[in-house]
Every structure is written in structure tokens, then in C-alpha cells.
What we know:
mainly beta
Amino acid sequence: MICFLENTFQIKLEKNEKGEYPVIVTENGIFSEMNLKNKPSTFVKFVINEYEELTIDWYIDNENRFSVKSLQIHQMILINDDDESSIQFVLERWQSRMFKIQWNPKLHIEFGLYYEICDDCD
């Protein structure tokens, strides 16, 4: 998943002192926390480790308003079209559910159902 993020967003993710990869999402896109000089006051931080565990924190005006800790991820899906830019994290133990971090048209987090699209299912 680390390679997917690096290749998709053309960023170099760096490990922190815990051996995790922290990523900052703003309305302007996705950045490696280790390379970001000035964090905005409102952002989503997600952290992925080598075991594909996910932690999500949403900061609004530099205050943590939402946290999800230690989710095992089954799949990561990018949505990048004219209407929406987001990443969906499908949960390992509950594959019909996902967390979505959206940055376009506005910064947003959603927990909901995950529907796998199948072209041959009709």
C-alpha cells in the first residue's frame, strides 16, 4: 500500500520513529508528514504501518475531532475524477465496510458500505 500511495501521488513517504508512514491530507492534496514544512490548521492524518494497519485522525482548527485506531486494511481504492478525489480503505474483517477520506470537492471523512463494482455481475 505504501508503494501504491507513492506511485499514485508521486510523493516519497518516510518512516517516523515508530516505523510508520504518516500521511497528511488537505484540500490541496496528499503529502508525506515528514516532508511537510507547515501543516494547515485543518487536515486529516492517516498512518499506515508495514502490517497494513490504519490509524485516522481528523484535525479541525488544530484540535483532534475524530480518531480511528488500528484498523486492518484489506484494500485501498483511489477515486480521482472530475467530481471527487478520495481514497477508500476497505476493512479486512468487515469487507462490506470502508472508511473514505475525501479532499475534493472538500475535506471529508466517511464510514459506510463498500460496494464492489463488477462488470460481469448484471
